[in-house]
Amino acid sequence: MVLEMLMKKERRLIIALDVMEAERALSVAESTSGLCDALKVNYPLVLSAGLGIVDRLADYGDVLCDFKVADIPPINELIVRSAFDHSASGVIVHGFPGADSLEACIAAAEGDVFVVALMSHPGADMFFLPIAEEMAAMAVEKGATGIVAGATRPKSIARLREVVGSLAILSPGVGPQGGDPREALKHGADYIIVGRRITGAPDPARAAEGVLEDIRGM
Length: 218
Ligand code: O7M
Prior knowledge:
By secondary structure, this protein is an alpha/beta fold. Helices cover 45% and strands 18% of the residues. An 8-stranded parallel β-barrel has the order 1-2-3-4-5-6-7-8, surrounded by 6 helices. β5, α6 (124-142) and β6 (146-149) form a beta-alpha-beta unit. α4 packs parallel to α5 (99-108) and α6 packs parallel to α7. The radius of gyration is 16 Å and the shape is globular. The mean pLDDT is 97. 6-(methoxycarbonyl)uridine 5'-(dihydrogen phosphate) (O7M) binds next to β8 and α9.
């Protein structure tokens, strides 16, 4: 059984709140509320502000906890449960620890589970690229909500789309990492994930509007 996708798909934009200060994260979330479909939090923010920041951000929209969960099954279960206990709408997990680890994440989840199939950075050529399609196939087989595939590799996104069918594809790596958001969406991504282009801008809402303008009509 595939998890039913809970995240809305109106803007096709997920904002990565890779900042260290809770107040900055909250202010970006408040000013961009309505301009994105979800907020993504990663370790930098949670390690500096605490997991309670997820509860606070949830006032502004769906929050994906990008904990890239990659442990043995019982530990994965604890991590995933913690995220949902703090109002997360979804979690991002790794697939490379294997099927039992992914199954534990999906069993513990009370929302969306996305599996990292292919990362966006150059080093992902080493280990991710050769196994990305297998990882995506496992995500389908185990019933994940979707996968993560880097916007820096649009042709791979197209191949992964064939593997995952109607599952969601989230695509990070646009802007500073070199990916083109329109290419990612054109090749089959459902959402782009954007961090610094928005969080590093003097006016994050305006920057988010600029991203939406770039992908208008997609
Ligand atoms: O737009 P950026 O480059 O400032 O930020 C990109 C965000 O996407 C940042 O939060 C990364 O952790 C995340 N990301 C990648 O950049 N590459 C990946 O391959 C995977 C992710 C990600 O979101 O994984 C779930």
